[in-house]
Write a structure and sequence with these properties.
Layout: H1 23-37, E1 44-48, H2 55-68, E2 72-77, H3 85-99, H4 104-119, H5 150-167, E3 172-177, H6 184-200, E4 204-210, H7 214-221, H8 225-228, E5 229-233, H9 239-252, H10 259-269, H11 273-286, H12 294-318, H13 322-341, E6 352-353, H14 354-361, H15 369-377, E7 381-385, E8 388-391, H16 396-402
Parallel strand pairs: 1-4, 1-5, 2-3, 3-4
Antiparallel strand pairs: 6-8, 7-8
Region (Disordered): 1-21
Pfam family, one: AAA_16
GO molecular function, one term: electron transfer activity
Length: 404
Amino acid sequence: MDPIRNPYAPGAGQRPPELAGRDEQLTMFDVVLERVAKGRPERSLVLTGLRGVGKTVLLNALRSAAVRRRWGTGKLEARPDQSLRRPLSSALHQAVRELGHRDEESVSHVLGVIRSFAQREAGPTAKLREQWNPGIDVPAVKGRADSGDIEIDLVELFTDLGGLAADEGKGIAVFIDEMQDLGPDDVSALCAACHEISQSGLPVIVVGAGLPHLPAVLSASKSYSERLFRYQRIDRLPREAADRALSAPAEDEDAAYAVDALEAMYAATGGYPYFIQAYGKAVWDRAPRSPITADDVAVAAPEAEAELAVGFFGSRFERATPGERDYLRAMADAAVAIAESGEGVLDDVESVPTADVATVLGKKPQSLSPARDALLKKGLIYSGERGRIAFTVPHFGRYLREHA
């Protein structure tokens, strides 16, 4: 097969040629946009799921839907070592520009509020190089969104933004990727701002994406967050959608898959979107002709697995210290022990009790807390329920047993 015409796109956040299996979320978001623009009550949205299920791709698709309705949009990626003020200010600056409000005085006021919100992080005595310079050429608005209390400031900022958008009969949407990495104060402020905006009926929404434990992070901050957001669990694709993700791009290039090839691909990928793209690319390059067969999949599988071992699994494993790697291997071994004993079913995330990990390593659970906490902060594992942990990456346990 011609590699130049290879349609598959394995990449971080890179939109696949066929966004299969996400129609429900796209349709639901269209309804949210229409309701918010008309001043009707609606909740902000949170997408959760493992690595490689396409959360970032879907987040970008939802943003595109808002842009098509001429909303103002901005996007940021949360980082555990960074306050929310500056990246959010940059995202909102872009959102105001996209909104295209016709009253220059109103726009200047809101931009000045954004500037005051951002510069409050540096403090009044900060040197010039430490002050935020986002390209906003209007002076900061004193006494608005600059109290120093992130919760008060964010409510004031969102209120002014909502008023600006309402003037145009449009809305503003803020998209936050890796939302679980926000600091506790920032999460609390974001929840409070969304709550206030929802009560006021102003057209501002937040769309967040993060790992499966994100709802627990939000709930720990504000008890009402369970009712504040609409949660959507993004999971692997069912067989029909996975087949379409492979077949539709191939058909656009005058190629096809045999039935047994699609069966083999689903068995290999488990329906995870990133794996589908990685295997699809490798199989296309290896297959001599169309239709692609199960034999072609078997020939190309080692190449796809090698690519994943380096770029998807290996890069994450390398981020761990030697002690943390021991903990990850022990998680993988504990999962197999549970499955072999018949006490549980081995799932893709291989959720295991922390006590079982300690047993594998022959140590007390308390002594392993530093390694576990470091892995949680690095986003390699997560805790879906008290006393249990799981990999954030599907098939990571299998990789550890075979390669690490």
